[in-house]
Amino acid sequence: MPEAPAAPVMPETTFDALIVGAGFAGLYQLHALRDRLGLRAHVLEAADGVGGTWTWNRYPGARCDSESHAYAFYFSDDLLQSWDWSERYPQQPEILRYLNHVADRLDLKRDITFGARVGSARWDAAAGLWRVATQDGRRYAAPFLVTAVGCLSSTNMPDIPGREDFAGAVHHTGEWPHDGVDVSGKRVAMIGTGSTGIQAAPVLAEAAAHLTVFQRTANYSIPARNRPLDDAFKHWAKAHAAEIRATMHATPNGHPWTVGPRSALEVSAEEREAAYAAAWEKGGLALRATFRDILTDRAANDTAADFIKARIREVVQDPATAAKLADIDHPFATKRPPIDTGYFETFNRANVALADIRADPIERITATGIRLRSGAEHAVDVIVFATGFDAMTGALLRMGISGRDGLALSDAWAAGPRTQLGLQVPGFPNLFTITGPGSPSVLTNMPVAIEQHVEWITDCIAQLRAQGRATIEATDDAAEAWVAHVNDAANATLMPQAGHSWYLGANVPGKPRVFMPYAGGMARYRAICAEVAAQGYPGFVMAGQAARVPA
Ligand code: N01
Prior knowledge:
Blueprint: E1 12-14, E2 17-20, H1 24-36, E3 41-44, H2 53-56, H3 77-81, H4 92-105, E4 112-113, E5 118-124, E6 129-134, E7 139-142, E8 144-147, E9 169-172, E10 187-191, H5 195-207, E11 210-215, E12 222-223, H6 231-239, H7 241-250, H8 269-282, H9 298-315, H10 319-325, E13 339-340, H11 343-346, E14 352-356, E15 362-365, E16 369-372, E17 377-379, E18 382-385, H12 394-397, E19 401-402, H13 409-412, E20 431-433, H14 446-466, E21 471-474, H15 476-491, H16 522-534, E22 540-543
Parallel strand pairs: 1-7, 2-3, 2-8, 3-4, 5-19, 8-20, 9-18, 10-11, 10-18, 11-14, 12-13
Antiparallel strand pairs: 5-6, 6-7, 15-16, 16-17, 21-22
3-acetylpyridine adenine dinucleotide is lined by residues 64-65, 152, 158, 191-197, 199, 216-217, 336, 357, 386-389, 442, 500, 502, 507.
């Protein structure tokens, strides 16, 4: 039999820098490299438009939990002044519109290839180039490769037996169909009670005939108290942009509020209760900043946890359901605390039920629904997996990255991610990972972390070129020391006590249990990175020869 002709090898297109991903991070990185350094920079994006996480997460109720006036680029006064947010917490379509506004205003789309999912990225040491191929065979090369793939972009679909037998529809919230899912008149099962499930449940319950929420781990949630923004607030935010930015840069989480200076244990019970009640009434993530030691002292944390559990029992009318929802096994805010719009109230609806799958786990999915270990059957038409992500490392590992001497990133990180500052990996020259593991990223208001990384990377590449060097690479010793520091920073908080959190990789079977984000605070991290740059990049090696370019 004649051999099938070999697939044609596509020509390779060469740039100065390749960026993977066109969300917040990729957009700003493209602007910085192209418009500040004058590089021929290009973005490869799997989706058919800009937006990153906000392209994929279109599930009902999807909205941001950072306040809109802080969930924006602050590097450009023009961008700040040319955009108005409509609500305190913007919905997914509005954030997508914002990112399109950014891309159009900065004329970025002409340097983005959409529908380009990276399948491999290989360091070619002889040529000093990253050779990148998309899954459909398009080929690109550049001396610099910057990943802007987000921390929560690789979905976690649990391997529950029988999924293929189910006759109804199955959707993961992180890959929600762009034209929506009509659940009207349908019986819906939603698995998962993280930030996503807690946002989706009230909206699904409104639309569906019946909703069953499958809860494995009960969760805290704080009311968002979302509301339209009035003109007075919009004007205030624009007029005070410099102060807001300064606050976001000075605080551990990059949010526009400061952490209360007092210990929860140094005030009277009445004063504490009043402080929590005020934060509850105000709504949003700032409740965890009511006192300085909520995240570091178990007794202090218990006071916040008890306050929230009491509110859950107050809101939920059925005592048995309330008890299951308030039976939370980890300290408050040691998993990312959701904020909600009517989550606990949803369980007072006649068409909503809670299935406690900690007590009675899912055994299998059948043709008609979900069967629990006890034999109980839940007949449903739609199953929604709100089961989260292979966070922080998943998207990077799925890209098929290999560095010097063919070292696969999956081998380099077999025991957990090793990075210098979350920015570079030893053995992978000229690869930069925006909001990579080991950086504060998911513990912060993301645009603040992204801006800092993009600016550091851009300055670093400028310095490298100014010194006439071709490559920069983190050293093993520096990564070793940074990983130890990341562990110490986590252990100084209560966060490792949430044993099943995705911060630890514990939500994905077989994933190494390593606390991945840097818990030392964004402000401290920013200072460390600035000091490294000021000292001439200790912990990194610059090598090779390249033409000098004035910084
Ligand atoms: O995912 P999660 P998420 N069987 O991993 C359960 C950001 N975000 O998509 O805790 C049964 O937090 C799992 O149970 P358990 C935000 O940073 C932001 O909700 O592992 N259940 C848990 O209840 C957030 O933290 C916004 O026991 C299973 C849930 O699924 C992050 O994204 C909005 C299971 C997963 O919760 C991830 O949130 C939404 C199984 N096999 C998300 N596997 C904003 O507002 C998992 N679960 C910006």
